[in-house]
Amino acid sequence: MGYSVLFGLLGSMVIAGLAYRLRSLSLTGAVAAIGVGTSLYMSGSIAWYGTLIVFFVTSSGLSVWRKRGKQLTNMVYEKGSRRDAGQVLANGGLAALLSIGYVAVPHEGWWYAYIGVMATVTADTWATEIGSLSRLDPRSILSFKRVPRGTSGGVSILGCLAAALGATVIGVSVVVFLLIDKYIFHSNVGIVAVEWLPIDMIVIWISLLAGFLGAMTDSLLGATVQHMRRCAVCGIEVEHSRHCNAPALHLRGWSWLNNDAVNVFSSAVGAGIAVIVWVFYY
Ligand SMILES: [Zn+2]
Hints:
By secondary structure, the chain is mainly α.
């Protein structure tokens, strides 16, 4: 236990420090990421920690990679690509809680909920990062009418494909990490499904379904009840409270439901879908 805290802390500090240097995390974001990473490491399996790293590295990598074409959306998402503590906890807080639950009351169900969460946050992040490269303006998930880029609830074919791919990558990573856990570390995380590859495929399907539907939930909430503001200076739609160095005005949605809250809710939906499919399948 003592060592696992130490290793988890050191490993997370290295990764969060790197992300801070690459400007994909703010200072508070890095501190939150160290907390999330350490608790996942302490869950005792490379499968929990490794999946988080796959999400984190691919998402940060995508955001650094497309930084050049990003100016336009940066104006809408004022916080830019630098994630603060609120964003990190919105993406990783639920995952950390699930790993703590698993340690407290070991049960396979925690694990599937975790897959649903990680698939959703990865699908959502990939859809945002890759979808913004689409040459066509996105369409509203509600009306299918074209909406300006960066509009909450706007979806594109490219974004949907990216969501499906991100969710699948999490499923494949989970299988790979579980096999490493089983055959190299000879530890068992209590996953009945992992016997050999043909059976493991169900984990990938669960991840794809949960992640895709979780990301669509995120868009649906973004198009309907998420709090959106309008910049008092330049007039564009923004998610955050300030733009152009001035407070932004209420535009639509529930004022308590910001983007971070939408992320947490969508992750919970992804977790629920993963657990339901698992319960019905086994
Ligand atoms: Zn503005």
